[in-house]
Amino acid sequence: MGRSEREAVARGKRLYEAAQAVVDDHTRAVEAVRTALEPIHDDLARHELDAIPVTRLKDLTEGRLRLGEVEKGGFRTVGQVLDAGPYRLRQLPGVGQQTADQTVAAARRIADAVRETVAVHIDVDQPEPRTTALVVALNVLVEAGPEARRAVDAASTLTKRLGPQLTEAAPTSGRLRMLLARRDRRERALTALAEVRTLTDQAEQDGLHRLLAQASVDLLRRPDSDVAALVDFELRSAEYYGLLAELSGRAPDPAAAEGFLPDEVAERVRTQPLDDTHRRVSLRGYQAFGTRFALAQRRVILGDEMGLGKTIQAIAALAHLSAGGETHFLVVCPASVLINWTREIEKRSALRVTPLHGPDRQEGFADWKGRGGVGVTTFDALRGFPTPDGDVDLGMLVIDEAHFVKNPQTRRAMAVSEWAEHCERVLFLTGTPMENRVEEFRSLVRILRPELAGTVDDHDGVAGSKAFRKAVAPVYLRRNQQDVLTELPALQHTDEWEEPSPQDEEAYREAVAAGNFMAMRRAAYARPQQSAKLDRLREIATEAAENGLKVVVFSAFRDVLRVVSEALADRGPVFGPISGSVPPARRQRLVDDFAAAPAHAVLLAQIEAGGVGLNMQAASVVILCEPQLKPTVEHQAVARAHRMGQVRTVQVHRLLCTGGVDDRLVRLLENKSRLFDAYARRSAVAESTPDAVDISDLSLARLIVEEEQARLGTAAARGPAALEPTE
């Protein structure tokens, strides 16, 4: 045994130590979260138990417990019984050992149930040391991201395989040790040495050393400050809550997370592998299942309720297929969400994305065919592209807002159907529940699985959602928020980037030429018949209506709210607008009437008037018609809905147009220092004087108007940056 063997063992030891260090670092990071969570969780559980009357113990024992003497002894709650224990209960007159033991046992069963169901809510408006410590601990794992998770999984597997082989191969590192070893021991050592070489060579080939080194850095990194962690939590609360649910072990009901699929379908989906090599986002358990469903069943409808991440699940499926060698994918969506799709694919995956839209779409299509990646196009543009004729092997076709093709006689439905015939994997996405639209559902299934369409009976929908989902299990998966989100409501922000219509562009140019900053901000609604923002607003409100969700719409401008009111007049009750001229008592009546409305309703509010002092927690969808000049204003408006008493995830949609004032506002206001200032606003002084942390309206307006006049080559008709009041 010589130098080569010693070097091989040394290489194996270095790799083993690097892998073990990553596992240990991850274990410490997880333990830090659990340590921070435990006292918070225990206090919440204790608070619940102190509110449960001792008489509830009778229900648990079907009335067999006699608790009269326990109550006479001053024990009023389940928490008090747990504190007392059986010994103290036995000291009460008339309470024997059996009664005491059974009473405490019943109390412990209730306590176990409470601990399973209680959820931690992190209030960023009123942070306190314990929840801040929890956010800081979570931040390490959230910031490390899916790459660290991949490194930990690889490191765990490697240590289990490499550790025993290094032990067996130890004699090969010295000539004397090999000479003194028995023959069978030498043979085992040589076999183990060969395995060590194989594992280290494979690790080097896979770039595992770099992955482990980066994971070690990421898992040891701490946020710059508590404030930095809290700001990040506010921006990505869904990721934090998802990780918290996973680490706390309080996962949603498995049957609900799997959409109440029959066992045989669910089992096939569970065994579907899922490669995350090209993915840049961690999936929650139900999202991973949805991705596997799309892959295992091949041609399906993913009908999750809005806000559950259908887009992310679709991207995860594309990333998996890409890792397996597929090269071409196509996403078809309404024009209003095309930009969002391209940005999400770029952000959430390593896949190349090409927009196939606009006057250059044919050139883009040719480039996509030649280079591959994800092409993103619209229903109308799809009709102008030739279907795959053998020169392109389409890995997956994704149809967003699939209910748009429910009528098989329309040209868009025909185009989608023709493309679907040339693709083995097709994924339809829709947030519209299908249970009450069986005929529409059949139309979609005819495109995907014609042989199944005839088996879907009208009575399946009438029988209820669970029965319907089981009947259509091979092709349809839907989960609701209340079934799969175990934590208290998160806040989901979505910037809805729209490409302005020609009419929008015309109105915007007129406002820029006039140097009228406020007109520039609301130009997207000046031509309601052809407004890109208004089209997207209708889509969001319609999907909310389909899911029975209430919507609050904020704008700084009353004329914009009038346009919105007219656009939504035929889609359900619309209340408001609440504006500065509406007396406070009348404002509260509008909010009360909005809250009392059954199912879906819309409340319109001028943001400066409706964003302060009113509680709108009946709404779980918030639409901001335009970006505001002060982050404080947006925060206060959103906080009207996202507050204690809210029972659903709050989805915030901020409508933005590319290439103009919205673009410039977002870039100016959403830098790191702005986020810190926005967080500092929560002090009493900042709340009372928000201008203290926001830049001057006038200076900001002048800057943007001058830049836009230069970009568009328009001369000001009057002084730059005319600031009109927001009415």
Describe the structure.
There is one protein chain. This protein is of the alpha/beta class. 57% of the residues lie in helices and 9% in strands. It contains 35 helices and 13 strands. The strands form 2 sheets. It has a 7-stranded parallel β-sheet with strand order 3-4-2-5-6-1-7, with helices on both faces. β10, α29 and β11 form a beta-alpha-beta unit. It is globular, with a radius of gyration of 30 Å. Mean pLDDT is 84; it is low at 672-695 and 717-721.
Q: What keyword list fits this structure?
A:
single chain, 727 residues, alpha/beta, Rossmann fold, seven-stranded parallel beta sheet, 35 helices, 57% helix, globular
Total helices: the number is: 35
Low-confidence stretches: 672-695, 717-721
Over all CA atoms, what is the radius of gyration? 30 Å
What is the 3D form? globular
Biggest sheet overview: 7 strands, parallel
The N- to C-terminal Cα distance equals 88 Å
* Major sheet strand order: 3-4-2-5-6-1-7
What structural class do the secondary elements suggest? alpha/beta
Helix amount: 55-70%
Number of domains: 3
Give the averaged pLDDT, no decimals: 84
Strand composition percent: 5-15%
What's the β-strand tally? 13
